[in-house]
Amino acid sequence: MRKLTKDQQAELLRRMVDTVGREGEPGGPIQNVISVGMLSEGWDAKTVTHIMGLRAFSSQLLASRWLAAGCGGLLRSAQENRALRSGIRQHLRRAVHFPATRRGDGPPPPPPPPKTQIEPMAEKRRFEISWPNVVRIDHAYTPVLKLAVDQVPVLHIDAAQTATLAELAPIIDGKPDVTRLTEIDLAELGRKFRMQRIGFEAAAEVFDLMKPSWKGRREYLLAQLVGLVERFLRSNRVQISPPMFFQDDLRRRIILTLSMTRVVQHIWEAIRQENTEKLVPVFDSEHPIRTTGDMRPWYTGRPCEWAKRSHVNFSVYDSTWEASEAFTLDRDPGVEAWVKNDHLGFDVLYVYKGVVRKYRPDFLIRLANGKMLVLEVKGEDNQQNETKRRFLDEWCRAVNEQGGFGTWFWAVSRHPTDVKDILTRHADQSQIPARRAT
Known about the structure:
The protein is of the alpha+beta class. The chain is built from 14 helices and 19 strands.
């Protein structure tokens, strides 16, 4: 067999990679192609006999990990694995040269910028900020549920954003056109869903969310929920687009069923806010109170600035907007102490589309009048951000009702220039429970 040139070898390699697993093609015999990220972690792969790199190695460490994987991967202990890689690297230094870059790629890349250590400072202890470590908020509901349907925010549903309908719809100009769904597809979906069933299933899901905090008979709770949900679904508080999905009964039933998670979330929040008799914060049993002093030192390559009135040495920011807000907080006379909420562990749990998530506001601020302000920097808005703020509002109300942690407020900065007005407004307010501020 004649010897191939470098260009021919490269072309053959390219064809092998492009045809992995195809019988009769150059890549047919290859069973697996594994990413660099997987091999860099290491695992027990005792059946591996050959490893081929598809690009130039940029470090001997990476090469040693590849070879360690071929020699048995992660051994019985981390010490054994490190020892194996160390021995391989020593061998590589003596026997093999791995170029840092391929020919023609230019000089090696510059070293990464130095990292900045972020940590609380003992000499700035007077700026320490503490907060209650709330793991959840329990609700005590009134025995008779109420729902002012005309006051519930309108729920907007777009049929084109509904996954099942988008999959069935024909693609027009690169987008699914749900207005051209066939009558056969709609009839098949319609047979599965009836309006009464939709209402009962939505009520059952709301029931599951409320029953842990319900003190009365559960049968009574479910019966009330079924009626409230059916009233909401028949109301004008549900808007569906395009219009044909709102006007046609069959399409309306289908879109409501396929959007059940959103419907349940919307109804549950409305019922919860209107019928909660008392909010009871539940604190972490091991760490009921957290402070900025609990932060462990960490390192970052992101932009940061020295903070004079923060217990933490530097404020790390993700945008020039955040940097501008931090500049104002560090100099405003109404601010006694503040901190960027990064690696602090201050999170507010919220539920969105049936999933429990964590919301991490941007700044914690102690004002000169003693009040605590949670500040979020947000330009654009969407349904998920609105849900986050409703749970943050609930968090503040629960903490204020509990007492013992000062008075907490929250606000949203929607423009780099409005933070000064927010601080002034809260500095002038009397000591009252949490109030929405934008």
